[in-house]
Amino acid sequence: MTGNAKIVLYTQRVEIVSSYGERRDCADQNIPRFIEACGYLPVSVPNVASIAKHMVEQLRPVGIVLTGGNSLTKYGGDAPERDQVEKMLLELALQHDIPVYGFCRGMQVIADYFGCELEQVQGHVAVRHEVHGKLGTMGVNSFHNQAFRKAVSPLTVLAQAEDGVIEAIRHIDKPVMATMWHPEREDPFRMEDIRRVQELFG
To answer: In this structure, which of 20, 27, 86, 193 has its CB flanked by the most CB atoms within 10 Å?
Structure first.
């Protein structure tokens, strides 16, 4: 990593620790490792909207990664502060043409923002399955129990599973792309995932 490294911000999940009365931000250590493998300096964003906004303004990231974990509150989740931060980050990114990559929950955030309806799905937790579409045919990991089967403009479908669940999307005009699979959970990281992020963030 050089002194002129390009910064990429990434979001964190909320863990509620009732015994301490704490709401903790945390992320799998493989997330920053994956971002670094793509050639960027990873910087985590707290689930505090005012701080997150200042980080975008001051650090001028070349990209933002919306990560996995926590369901959206409208679909049963319990982390409204994360919903607020990620929606704000997405809006700032769209306004300023900052590239965004979302995975798992991150893709759900993007889909929900543009009006796609999520639903409960079966057979997509802790499994591997094939996806097909504009990205080709590939085997991917799967760790989600909510998804959608119909994309709404301006989102276009890049990959779907055999059961019709949409597994990858892209905005038709803006530099926004997402996958339901977790790139950081591949060991080793897959070059095709790395290249997609590099092409998106530059």
So the answer is: 86
∠ CA 113-62-158, rounded to 5°: 50
Structural domains of the chain ordered from first start: 7-201 (3.40.50.880)
Q: What angle do helix axes 80-96 and 105-113 make, rounded to 10 degrees?
A: 70
SS (H, E, C) 19-45: HHCEEEEECCCHHHHHHHHCCCEEEEC
> Rounded to whole angstroms, how far apart are CA atoms 185 and 51?
28
Cα angle value 87/202/26 (rounded, 5°): 45
Helix (H, G, I), strand (E, B) or coil at 42: strand
pLDDT at 121: 93
Q: Please indicate, yes or no, whether the overall pTM of this predicted structure exceeds 0.90.
A: yes
